[in-house]
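Re: that chain you flagged

S.,

Sorry for the slow reply, it's been a week of failed gels. I finally had a moment to sit down with the sequence you sent. For the record, here it is as I used it:
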Amino acid sequence: MKNTAKARYLASGYTSGRREKLIFHSRGCWYASRLKRPARAYISRNDALQDGVRPCLRCKP
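Prediction finished late last night. Pasting the structure tokens below so you have them in one place:
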């Protein structure tokens, strides 16, 4: 995981069936504030999208 201090986006994970799915949130998102430990951290939105992580539908980063 990259340095979370500089990261603008945080990813949370959940499992659906046998696959883990990741969603990334902006730092100000309500869901991101409830994360105990983010699964991954990203500096740019494009980095998260290229990694196959989908954006949060609530904060729409």
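What I noticed first: The longest helix spans residues 45-50.

Talk soon,
D.
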